[in-house]
Amino acid sequence: MQLVEQARSIFAELGYTVEGDGPEFRAQREWKVVHVSTVFETGTLPSASGDFHCFVAQPGDVDELEAKLKRTSPDYEWAIIVVDGDEYQVERAPPGPRAAA
Questions:
Q1: How many CB atoms lie within 10 A of CB 50?
Q2: What angle do CA 53, 27, 75 make, to 5 degrees?
Q3: Which residues, other chains included, contact 79 with Cβ-Cβ below 8 Å and sequence gap of 6+?
Q4: The sheet that has 52-57: what strands, in order across it?
Q5: N or C: fewer beta carbons within 10 Å in the chain?
Q6: Span 13-61, pLDDT tens digits
Q7: Separation of alpha carbons 27 and 16, rounded Å
């Protein structure tokens, strides 16, 4: 199964409605819209459209991707999901809400 098909399957299993074709697509659940990109099928980081971006990568691409995201410091919250065969895990998730003391 190609990485983009796995990414679509993951978001569908999580209850998102998946829209769009190709290595970049949109996943929506209730009010939250996530722009999803499979790495490195696109080769570039997306522009600052939307608040949430999730990158789906294979284990060998994660370190380079995370370094690139930290260097460019995009104006959106981002997460990385690592797909290894039929397994996946969230490698890096956006920070959660901050609690006031």
A1: 13
A2: 20
A3: 52, 53, 54, 55, 90, 92, 93, 94
A4: 17-19, 24-29, 32-38, 52-57, 77-84, 87-92
A5: C
A6: 999 999 988 888 999 999 899 999 887 654 567 766 678 999 999 999 8
A7: 6
- Residue 101: which pLDDT band, with cuts at 50, 70 and 90? very low
Q: Which helix (H) or strand (E) holds 45?
A: none
Find tokens 């190709």 and name the residue. 22
pTM over 0.85? The answer is no
Cβ-based neighbours of 76, under 8 Å, separated by 6 or more: 35, 48, 50, 51, 52, 53
